[in-house]
Amino acid sequence: MEFLSHLWLGLQTAATLANLLYCFFGVFLGTAIGVLPGLGPTATIAMLLPVTFVLPPVSALIMLAGIYYGSQYGGSTTSILVNLPGEAASVVTTLDGYQMAKQGRAGAALAASAIGSFFAGTVSTFLIAGFGPPLAAVALKFGPAEFFSLMVLGLVASVVLAQGSLLHAIGMVVVGLLLGLIGTDVNSGTQRFTFGIYELADGIGFVTVAMGMFGLGEIIRNMENEAERSVMVAKITGLWPTREDFKRMVAPILRGTVIGSALGILPGSGSILGSFAAYSIEKKVSKNRGQFGKGAIEGVAAPESANNAGAQTSFIPLLTLGIPSNPVSALMVGAMIIHGIQPGPSVINEQPALFWGMIVSMWIGNLFLLVLNYPLIGMWVRMIMIPYQFLYPGILVFCAIGVFSLKNTEVDIYFMALFGVLGYVFSKLGCEPAPMLLAFILGPLMEEYLRRAMLLSRGDPTVFLRRPISATLLALAVLAMCTVLIPAFSKTREEAFVEGSG
Amino acid sequence: MKRNPKDFWTGLIYIGFGSAAIFIARDYGMGTAVKMGPAYFPTILGGLLVGIGVISAIRSFVIPGAPIGPFAFKGLTLVSVSVLLCGFIVRGAGLAVAIPLLVIVSALASSQFRWRPTLMMAAGLTIFCVLVFIKGLGIPLPIIGPWFGR
Question: How high is the ipTM of this complex?
Fold first, then answer.
């Protein structure tokens, strides 16, 4: 029973008092930022990274992961109660969740979301535990060519799943790769693109880029429609779902979990795509499809299960291959590197306590969330009422100090401001920052693998096609690209995002 | 006449970025495909980006698209200036000056701006940050900086 002994090791790591506290703190904070609109998990994790440097690596990662899936959860609370998705992944929850709340069934909607999330979280925890080791074993056989192709696949997937123009998303990836090359070239020691700025010798910190693009950029974006943020809180009544509700929840939760888990693994999407897909599928197969949009409990249960499942399975590529699949896991890669852990297939063997501890902590974190939801709901509601003009100056302060403390230089603050402006301009032009951040982190790695692969093949570029795994990965990338060009798919892709922004 | 301003401007930015990358990288040494020099990968990427930019720019004359929405110039300016200002003075003037300035200047961007709550928030955040970041986490920043003769 190797599986159980692994989980036991994880439990021993995750259930120490300190780690339980960090896990609790993470999900608590995550729920809070999920509740607060205009502050997403990417910016928060970027802000908190410097603080976690003083913690042991396991505790730091447990807390950061907690923030991520906690935020998925908090986002749904606001979707249901005030029709404001605190988080992109919970946009569809507003459709039926808020309707339920208006009919005085907020409690049932919150319960559906809580139970669905918990169930999905439990299943996906076991999925990671089950699929992690074999995947890592395969990845250990990877050479530089395979890793290069894998990264190409990851970037292509992030492009396919990005909102807006495909061409622009590809461009953003290239911009990200280029920005990632700033700094000292490891092979020759040449200072590239540093413009003689001494602080750039180590490159631009990914935290600086993430805080600028996601933190500052988002704040400036929110300035555009400030007046629209008036809040009407639905009264919370009917705390318990009826027997009928439970019956109607079961199938959507199961379907949502499956869909969310599968889509969560795909790079670039994390939890967002899963919740959209689960909702639209549920709308097609449900017996009560007539009630959708008017307060169907299925329309809450399915996407909520899916987004939580997706948030967790997105850790599979991160933990086993070292390839981040969304901005949040990209930040986790950075966190691991700073803690001296090279993310990749060897983590599972070299740091078993870290790997399994993190996985078990996710399940514990979900348990915390289930418990947090009911007693604290009044507090979350009060938090939603905080007007944005009192929120964003504080965010700016924490961003500025956080980014300074990384290398104790104010140059990073300047760069953060620059990336904030850049992020805003790009978003106005319909270019999403997520693929760029992913590429930014992968840039130096990709160059390194490309160099090694070409050195080993004596300059023969067909090596990427001659090695079977590498060729398969590239074929998948081409396939993914082609799906976008098929009119039917690109139409659904657009529709999903339109529903999302609406 | 350009029919898709988003495509057009994105294209221009990409062309600018890409050609800058190629131009700067020309000093770095190309190397060969077997032993790639520091300029190899950036030059490929730069070329790719210029290509994407050109396609996007050409496309902007053919396929129509939505206009670029209005820019939040006030927010853009005040938020970025407040952050730059904070970076510029934080070492010299200290955290107890830089944080209130950052809060006040950025808060001016809001249409709901009022002095009283802003000043209270500035004071609260300053005390919190001094306690947590300087006393607690030991970040090497002065509370009151050398510009004030200390």
Answer: 0.92
